[in-house]
Amino acid sequence: MLKLYGFAVSNYFNMVKHVLLYKGIAFDEVATFPGMDPAYNSKSPMGKVPCIETEQGYLAETSVILSYLEAAYPARPLMPADEWQRAKVSELMKMAELYFELPARRLFPEVLAGKKVSDDIKAEVRETIAKGCKAMAQLAKPSPYMFGEAMTMGDVAMRYCLVTCKLATQAIYQWDVVAEVPGLREWDEMMAGSDIAKQLDKAMQEGMTAFLAAVNAK
Ligand SMILES: N[C@@H](CCC(=O)N[C@@H](CS)C(=O)NCC(=O)O)C(=O)O
Questions:
Q1: pTM: predicted TM-score of the whole model, two decimal places
Q2: Mind listing the domains of the chain with CATH numbers?
């Protein structure tokens, strides 16, 4: 059976888990925290979570895992059949990661561990995310999902990229980024209302205290 390595507080782990649950793919979860076991790097070369284990071997990098799952388990599709529409979903996924998730993550040392992030970095991150919001406002017209009636990988990726972004921007700038993109709040609430999202959010909340303790013990 497929195995999923990672932990419930990781937004990347949750992206993959959301897709596994949505598609009804059977899997075992292997609780794994980055940096705790050097042997884990033989599975995930950068030591990051998530990674999956299949009969053929290990696979890391969330966007790659998501592409693999879509190709290997086409039932309950999360990518459009049309080539162009697929590319547009990939465009949104890439933007969500590059201009929401990754910049926000640079604020994590301060948000999670109280280690001051420089004002220069804060200004740079804010500028990147502000541009990301403008780009998202141009690309995303939720009705109700990002690309119409059916949920796609774009919705899943954006949801879990936004989790990080909301947390960090609220904590550092008291900035409600969701308000910057028309329709995003309604979309975000709709996404949070699914049974899968509720399950993952609950596990994330439950794991947060232990996670923060582990981060601060480093
Ligand atoms: N590029 C990776 C990023 C995954 C990632 O950053 N995971 C975090 C947990 S949310 C992690 O493993 N951090 C530990 C580290 O960076 O060493 C992916 O797409 O899967």
A1: 0.96
A2: 2-72 (3.40.30.10), 83-217 (1.20.1050.10)
